[in-house]
Amino acid sequence: MSEFKVLFTFKVWDELAHYLRDNLAKYTNLNLIMPADDDEDTILNLASQADVLFGWRPKIELLNKAEKMKLFIQPGTGAEHLVKVFKKYGRKSDVIITNGHGHAYEVAQHALGMLLALTNHIVGYHNQMVDGKWRIRESMSEGLKNKKIGFLGYGPINQFIHKFLSPFTSDFSILKRTRDIELEASLSSKIKFYTTKEKHEFLQRLDVLIIAAPRTKKTENMIGEEELQMLGKNAYLLNVGRGPIINEKALYMALKKQVIKGAAIDVWYNYQPQEINGKTYPYDSNHPFHELENIILSPHRAGSPFGDLSRWDENIQNLITLAEERNDFINVIDLQEEY
After folding, report:
1. Helix H segments across 239-335?
2. Coil, strand or helix: which one is 325?
């Protein structure tokens, strides 16, 4: 069998290195290269002999250096950077590009926590207690029982959120780019399915909208002023997909004017914010979300727990597929669809 050199472009910590080597030990044709020094020059010098690059956010210089590359594995989900850089890459049609969804359970768990904190006003109650204000008003908590919940996107994250929310309600709707007959047949007949052409009908029936979709040309600004008005003043919104799926100004104004009841947001608009007076916020200064009371703010940390090494299993599976010289890779990114 052919030998494949797998170059890790980040510093692999000991626990992960052992996990990867243990799970791939029988595949002696995989040469796992984990540099002790992951500076850019070291990685570039090693890239010319690599059959696989394994890491995040590659630069075009690295891709061009990796002349033998057959496979690129990104452990995380976000595909927008990969799409952008690979579209500039001359050999893009020859290279299989994959990402990972191994953190989907953790993201879904975080999302559920945010949603319950929002609907039950947990943060507000906590702050009242910190300020020594004991039961100063009637309960503002609102249950999820029998709420109409809609999923924009139905990949692994929203599938887990769906399972977590099933004890609360049975009224679910799913919006996907196209109809998926196999998926629909596998789920309850009570679930309502919509395509993007039916977006307005989908939104008008919801009490809670949960977004876990990739950022593409088709999804950017998919939710704007009109769509937020359709959700209405009693609706909640949760976003663990990508910030720009919701128009920034429209979201801020909808919350400020109480066009919708509240939002829980883990994904934002500016990931290189400038520090102002010792503070940094990942959104436009004209949209001070932190001043609003009807929002739960989270710093894109839903998928952060790295202690569960099983999150790497999908990436390991793709390396096994390569080692066995098969072609049935999972989580392959389509550059045309942008995810």
Report:
1. 248-256, 313-323
2. coil
Do residues 220 and 117 share a domain?
A: yes
pLDDT in tens, 274-322: 998 999 999 999 999 999 999 999 999 998 777 789 999 999 999 999 9
Question: 3-state SS of the chain: helix, strand, coil percent to 5?
Answer: 35, 15, 50
| DSSP assignment string, 175-215 | EESS--HHHHHHS-TT-EEEEGGGHHHHHHT-SEEEE----
Cut 0.90: pTM above it: yes
Cα separation, 295 vs 98, in Å, equals 34
Please identify which residue in the block is written with the tokens 């796992």: 32
Amino acid (one-letter) located at 60: I
Radius of gyration of the chain (CA): 22
What is the Cα–Cα distance from 92 to 336, expressed in whole angstroms?
Answer: 11
Counting the structural domains of the chain, the total is 2
Query: How far is the C-alpha of 172 from the C-alpha of 2, rounded, in Å?
Result: 48
Q: Is 20 a member of any domain?
A: yes
pLDDT in tens, 223-274: 999 999 999 999 999 999 999 999 999 999 999 999 999 999 999 999 999 9
Q: Which domain holds residue 146?
A: 104-297
Question: Distance between CA 221 and CA 68 in Å, rounded?
Answer: 38
Whether 41 contacts 336, CB under 8 Å:
no
Sign of the alpha-carbon torsion through 197, 203, 206, 212: positive
CB hemisphere CA count around 122 (13 angstroms) = 11
Q: Hey, is 33 helix, strand or coil?
A: strand
Q: Using DSSP bridges, classify how beta strands 149-152 and 172-176 pair: parallel, antiparallel or unpaired.
A: parallel
Q: Do 135 and 232 have their domain in common?
A: yes
> Do 82 and 168 reside in the same domain of the chain?
no
Taking the alpha carbons at both ends of the chain, their separation in whole angstroms is: 31
Same domain, 216 and 140: yes
